[in-house]
Structures are given as C-alpha cells and as structure tokens.
Amino acid sequence: MIKEKILVIGASGQIGVELTLALRKIYGNANVVASDLREENDLLKGSGPYVSMDVMNKEMLHVQVIRQNITQIYLLAAILSATGEKNPNLAWSINMQSLLNVLDIAKEEKIHKVYWPSSVAVFGPTSPKQNCPQQTIIEPTTVYGISKYAGEFWCNYYYQRWGLDVRSIRYPGLISYKSAPGGGTTDYAVEIFHDALEEKRYECFLQEDTYLPMMYMPDAIRATIELMEAPEEKIRIRTAYNISGMSFSPKEIASEIKKHIPAFTISYQPDYRQQIADSWPQSIDDSVARSDWGWREDYDLERMTRDMFENL
Ligand code: NAD
Ligand code: AKB
Hints:
alpha/beta, Rossmann fold, UDP-galactose 4-epimerase, domain 1, 2 domains, 6-stranded parallel sheet, 3-stranded parallel sheet, about 15% strand, binds nicotinamide-adenine-dinucleotide, binds 2-amino-3-ketobutyric acid
C-alpha cells in the first residue's frame, strides 16, 4: 500500500481548514501538509505542518511537492464569484493558472490523485433552474463560472491524455461555522447566523425569494473524502460531479433562524450579487453522483440551522 502524503493548497480558507483537519484525522497529522498564501492559521496551529506558499509560483510549488514526497494534492485556492466580478482578470489568472500549475506538476511527479473543486457557478441563465442535471446547457456568465467550466475540461483533459486521476465536485454554496467564507454570492447564508446572534437583525444582499443550492460543510467534507476514496472504476465523470444538499431562499432561512431567535428580523438590500445569483440554478440533480459513488446528504435546512446555533 502507498503511504499517502497530502498537500492541501488554500488550506486557510472556508473549506481548507475543515478539509485539512478531516484529512489529518484519516491520514495522520504529519502526512497532511497545509499550505496557503496566508502566513498561518489559528485553527490549524499545532495540528500538523503548514507552509506559506503562493500557488502561482510554480517552481516553489514543485520544490515543495518533491521535498515533502507528496502523493496527493487538494487545490482549494481560488477567487470566488463576487470577488471575481470585481476583478475579472485576477480571478481568471488565479483560478486557471493555479490549476494548470498543479496539473502539470502532478503529471510530472506521478502524483496519483488530485482534487480540485468546481461549483454550481458553471451553470448560467440558460441552464434548467430546477433540478439542474449533470449534463445540460452550460453557459456561465460570471468570470468565476467560466474559469470553473474551463477548469473542469482541463481536469478531464489530463485524465484522458495522461491518465492523471483528477476528481472534482460542483459544490453548492457552503455553510459553516469554523472558518469565514471568502467572497462568494452564497456568503449571506453564513453571515446571517453571525448577525442573528450578534445583532438580532440581518440586511441581506439578495432578494427574499432568491433560491440557491446550498450544503452544510460536514456534508461537503464527507462528499469530498468519499469521492476521493471511491474506487477508480466508479468515477465515470471526469469533469465534475453535481452534488446536492438543500435549496432555500433568504426568507426561508430567516424563518428557520427565527425559531431559535424569535426577535430576529431580516431586511433586503440587493446589490450586484443579485444578478450572479439569478444566473444560477435554484436546485441541482445529483442522481449521477448518487449512483456512481453512493453520494447522500445528511443535512437539511432545519438540521443545519440547529447545528450552526449549537456550535457558534
Ligand atoms: P476561500 O476563499 O475561503 O479560501 C481560498 C484560500 O485560498 C484562502 O485561504 C486564500 O488565502 C488561498 N489563496 C488564494 N490565492 C492563493 C494563492 N495564490 N496561493 C495560495 N493560496 C491562495 O475559498 P473556499 O470557500 O474555501 O473555496 C475553496 C474552493 O472551493 C475554491 O475552488 C472554490 O471555488 C470552491 N467552492 C467553494 C464554495 C463555497 O461555498 N465555499 C462553493 C463552490 C466551490
Ligand atoms: C460562490 O458563491 O461564489 C461560491 C460558489 C457557489 O461557488 N459559494
């Protein structure tokens, strides 16, 4: 059996912190190297190795992969949808070049598995709004969505051409309590919990009836690990898998929060992120992930809300 040594790039982000901690539980602290542009991370401190590194610096990345005897790479560094619309060139450059750097080095160094997340942001206004299928019309209108869609095809290309085992999931908006989200359109669904606790009110940047696909972080972490641990022959999709957790609108999550904080109120002040949200599907069909590698979510809106308040 190969002794795995994992490099997580973007480990200080919303997903990175929790994924690093989960991988350390499975593979051992010393065998999961966290890395990020940020100098350090309080939540990861003391739990294993941490390297401050820019993934855009290919030489430095290559050196780390060789020096640390890396066998698997999880690439989580990216610019998300809302930040991406403010600086499209930067988003395109970071999202694409980070992936190409990792894929190239992985191919050269015989890394045997790479994980890179895509997003429901690959879908655009012409995709079906309800139960958006795995394969459908995909015409993204944000730079983030374009970069994710192009990235999916690069992953597929490296698999088809060089047999590199790259796996990917189109995450919905992720809700978590450990690490703050980093500039996405779905971030409101995290902010709302903090403001509810601190101020008993929240001003939402999306309209009350904006339904979006969402998922609680424990489900997303489990999905990632289950996908990566699935036998190779079960992975039929080499672009990225749709997965689904729940769908709700700001009005619905607000009324769920009210069950825990009766004085809570919400108001709506839509901004440029409304247009991004309107371009995405409201719900996702994940039947292919279910049948290929047995995906199933654990959390709905009610259970997630309870758990968020228990932990915050
Ligand atoms: P995040 O913004 O919270 O974290 C990204 C991390 O990458 C940050 O810690 C940042 O410092 C780091 N980073 C940025 N540029 C870097 C560079 N040049 N070199 C090294 N590190 C760099 O993002 P996240 O929410 O954790 O998302 C992780 C991945 O999952 C991204 O690819 C994102 O597109 C995808 N995704 C996230 C969500 C979500 O709701 N969080 C949904 C769909 C897809
Ligand atoms: C974002 O809103 O940009 C992310 C995503 C759905 O990819 N949360």
